[in-house]
Amino acid sequence: MAKELIDLHMHSYYSDDGEYSPTELVQKCKERGITIMSITDHNCVRAISEGQQAAKDAGIRFLPGIEIDCTFQGVNLHVLGYGIDYTNDDFYLLEKNIEEQHMHASLQMLLSTQELGFHITENDMAELAKNNYWKDCWTGEMFAELLLNRPEYNDHPLLSPYRSGGTRADNPYVNFYWDYYAQGKACHAKIIYPSLMQIIRTIHNSGGIAVLAHPGINLQNHYELLIPILNAGLDGIEVFSSYHDAPATEYFLGKCHEFHLLPTCGSDFHGKTKPTVRVGHINCTINSEEMAAGLNSYFPQVN
């Protein structure tokens, strides 16, 4: 039973919340013994060319990938696209659309954060983001990083759960995002994402397969939507994930069997925004050869 040979979900610094270069991710995979990998940046395919070459040099099989934000019946979802033709213009148009909206949303998030009682400025955020690819797009994790490292907020009650020993201290930056900036939370700023069906079509039209990412986190309050989502034309479910405990993994694996879908595995590694998540941290309970065989049915170059 191989637990750390396949990791199909990780983020480079071409994601708005990723830390490492594509080449650095490949090196981490090599160190962990990963043999099949994919870099799946948020709404962006710019890591693929570099990652593909680095993986070839390292002797690792590489699937071009992306993670796309989309919506279904008012609920925000993430869909992974694998084996895509990343030169397709649709992906660059997608990136441009999300970037333009995210720039406006970032200013709204800043205002909402100030309304919580934190005295931070646009210049503060610009300084934090100056070396990022998405320089004008700020995330909840970035607000957390700034606030948690400000000495004047060491004793702020809103931040205490995210400090050492606190109830949300395991992954403080991303937990702060989930608690304050995610859909339905106090500092959320709406971005109009494409529909699930539109994104499935985009992925299929580029020669790829569409996989529902970590449903245990995105559907935690909306499990009634899972069946209609699976009937929308998806090819797989990310069953094995750092977000899923054993019961959730068993449940989603059962749905793969029921709907004849491909189960995939991915750590969702980002770096500093999720310090407890490691490359290969996927809790996979099926044999790697079985999963590789499933991938091979779609992509013969993966075996």
UniProtKB/TrEMBL annotation:
CDD domains: PHP_HisPPase_AMP. Transmembrane segments: none annotated. Pfam families: PHP. GO terms for molecular function: 5'-3' DNA exonuclease activity; 5'-3' RNA exonuclease activity. SMART domains: POLIIIAc. SUPFAM superfamilies: PHP domain-like. Residues 6-72 form the Polymerase/histidinol phosphatase N-terminal domain. It comes from the Bacteria. InterPro entries: PHP_dom, PHP_domain, Pol/His_phosphatase_N, Pol/histidinol_Pase-like. PANTHER family: EXONUCLEASE, POLYMERASE_HISTIDINOL PHOSPHATASE N-TERMINAL DOMAIN-CONTAINING PROTEIN. This is Polymerase/histidinol phosphatase N-terminal domain-containing protein.
